[in-house]
Amino acid sequence: MKTFVYIDHFKGEVQPASWEALGVAKSFGSASAVIFGSGLDALTKTAFEFGAGEVLLADDSALTDYRAEAFASTLSALASSRTPDLILFPTTARTRELAAMTAIDLNTGVLVDVTALSLEGDKFIATRPIYEGKLLEKTVCSGKPVIATLRARAFPRPAQDASKSGGATKVETKINSLTTVEGYTVAEAVVNLGDAGVIVSGGRGVSNNPSLTPPAGLDEKQAELWRAQQGFKLVGELASILGGAVGASRAAVDGGYIPYSHQVGQTGKVVTPDLYIACGISGAIQHLVGMRNAKLVVAINKDADAPIFKQARYGVVGDLFAIVPALTEAFKKKLGK
Q1: Containing H/E element for 233?
Q2: Which terminal CB of the chain, N or C, has fewer other CB atoms within 10 Å?
Q3: pLDDT of residue 267
């Protein structure tokens, strides 16, 4: 069984779920890591360390920046010549597009956000959540190659062995692009909730600190936003101490407290962290859909009847503006920070 694993990266910084996909590929037989870009010797070495049997490298400065047409045509040509049985991607915004375009070129289908993958005879069986995670859909994959994107943290990451190395096999670049990339402008810091092991999220409740007096001259809405910013500072400090990411409910995002990139839920990101701390989040069903697969949920809310407590392993009923700073200080001492 021959499998390609597309290693998704931005200027050499790899999406960690790429290595999880490589681990899945190894369980089926030969695993080939596919890397696009230029000057990626270190990334090639890392791919071997995570267990790639070979690295197929399209080393071309034209592939330094992601362009869907060029990447898809190069990957499709490579797959046509080497005929893999399976092509795996980590699920990201880029790979959803790339996987779909590659599938069209190869006249096959694509399954997105797969959480389990097995082989029965000569058929792959893919499992993924549907209907807001209420059901699991199992699909018998009959196309060739089978193309799937894997949900981050749904599969274990293989052990990294620094003693492993190898040389990359250079592959031909197929540039058939109608667009060019002149550069990137980062409007805000990138939030990678999907790969976060710890997420501390804030809801509308972070704006309700009665002990804070807003600066003079603010109207009611401006005062609310100012209080929310102070509340999210507390959330961010706790997340930072734990080496985690900051999440948010839809109510907090809709209120303008924090950018959409932080939103967890049905209309935001579906996350699977080891630890999820919900601060001032009541627990609307749309939010619960996005974090219900967290391994451990801790809820902090002054409303003892908040639905979030039904999802939590541990619940703290009380003032988050006292509890969150206390947790931050306790973890600082415990972790020696």
Answers
A1: helix 220-241
A2: C
A3: 84
Question: What CA–CA distances, in Å, run from 83 to 1, 140, 174, 252?
Answer: 11, 20, 17, 48
Higher per-residue pLDDT: 129 or 235: 235
| Apex 275 CA angle, 19 and 303, nearest 5 | 150
DSSP state of 263: B
Q: Is 256 left (phi over 0), alpha (psi -120 to 50) or beta?
A: left
Helices 220-241 + 320-335 axis angle, to 10: 20
**What is the crossing angle of helices 68-82 and 93-105, to 10°?**
50
Contacts of 269 (CB under 8 A, 6+ apart): 193, 194, 247, 263, 290
174-223 pLDDT tens trace: 876 566 667 766 555 557 898 899 999 999 999 999 899 999 999 999 99
Q: What is the DSSP letter of 117?
A: E
The C-alpha atoms of residue 207 and residue 100 are separated, in whole angstroms, by: 41
Rounded Cα distance, 162 and 294, in Å: 30
Distance of CA 209 to CAs 80, 213, 220, 251, 280, Å? Answer: 60, 9, 14, 17, 11
**Which residue, chain included where needed, has tokens 């006249």?**
107
d(CA 56, CA 6) in angstroms, rounded, equals 10
What are the pLDDT digits (tens) for 235-277? 999 999 999 999 999 999 999 999 999 999 988 889 999 999 9
Tokens at 120, concatenated: 């029965």
Report d(CA 266, CA 269) in Å as an integer: 7
> Which position has the token pair 């193309």?
147
What domains can you pick out in the chain, each with its CATH number?
2-170 (3.40.50.620), 198-335 (3.40.50.1220)
Q: Which string of b and e fits 287-322 if b means at least 16 CB within 10 Å?
A: bbbbbbbbeebbbbbeeeebbbbebbeebbeebbbe
CB 244 within 8 A of CB 199: yes
Q: Which amino acid is at 220?
A: E
- Taking a C-beta distance cutoff of 8 angstroms, is the pair 249, 264 a contact? yes
